[in-house]
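For the sake of transparency, this paper describes our internal protein records without simplification. Such a record has a labelled line for the sequence and another for the backbone structure tokens. Nothing more is needed to write down the fold, since each code stands for a local backbone conformation. For reference, a complete record is included directly beneath this paragraph.
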Amino acid sequence: MRTALVTGASRGIGAAIAAQLKADGCRVLTPSRAEMDLTSSDSIGKYLSTLNADVDILVNNAGINQVAKLDDIELANIINTLQVNLLAAFQITQWIAKGMKKRSYGRIVNISSVWSVVARSGRASYAMSKTAINGMTRSMAVELASYNILVNAVAPGYVLTDLTRQNNSPEEMEKIAQTIPARRFAAPEEIANLVSFLCAEKNTYLTGQTIVLDGGYSCL
């Protein structure tokens, strides 16, 4: 049985990914914020150092999106976003990859965003963090490929999650849906299905890619 670690699995995309990996037969670890606070490198290090499991699959899903226009962005906003969305993912991956290298097996998926490919007002700090995730994914894929560790990123577009509802009014969501070629938001389970493939034994060669899953939104 493979063991998977999924961050940010309490709701939304993370919860769907954790559920799908369990359905795939994995043992799934979903640390809570009390167990591993991603805003604190010390908390992350403490959790990882006491982790009593060989992790075969890592999904860096946790993220925050603090919407603010350019004139209103505070440095603390950027620092906090980069810590949770980027630096925490790097720290966790750096630690977990050591064990994967010893066992010559690993699947790592970083959840990026369509805002790493296209732009929207008010998303500067979020887009910065997710664009960096794409670069991190490519670099790690190159370093780890010879150890049979595949590293990819999934960049969802608009997904029906609490975070999406938090940042958009119902009226805005209806207007947004009409701008998507598929004419709807994705369900979290649709993102989870792609992650499931990337983490599966049948993925033997795909690595270093950022796959945009957005119903065609970024093609416009």
Notes: The mean pLDDT is 96. The first helix runs from residue 12 to 23. Strands lie at 3-6, 27-29, 57-60, 106-111, 149-156, 210-213. Residues 3-158+188-219 form a domain with the Rossmann fold fold (CATH 3.40.50.720).
